[in-house]
Amino acid sequence: MSFEVFEKLEAKVQQAIDTITLLQMEIEELKEQKAHLNLQIQQSAGSSESLARENQQLKEEQHVWQERLRALLGKMEEV
Predict the structure, then answer these.
(1) How far, in whole angstroms, is CA 20 from its chain's centroid?
(2) Which residues form a coiled coil (predicted)?
(3) Report field, pTM of the whole predicted structure over 0.85
(4) I need a surface site. Which of 7, 26, 70, 79 has the fewest CB within 10 A?
(5) How far apart, in whole angstroms, are the C-alpha atoms of residue 6 and residue 61?
């Protein structure tokens, strides 16, 4: 009788060990995914900042061209 109880206990312990091992593997996989996603976030943030700077530069260039065009149109109206 006690041998059967011991076998059941051993089976439950082995099942617990297997479950823990599986969970540890899942944790490692999730840590790798998290690191990869964090890297993507950093790259996206860098790209976003770069695009914002480029957008600002293009807006400034557009403003300069608009001012030149207005000046030229003003000269044409004078003539």
Answers:
(1) 30
(2) 6-68
(3) no
(4) 79
(5) 82
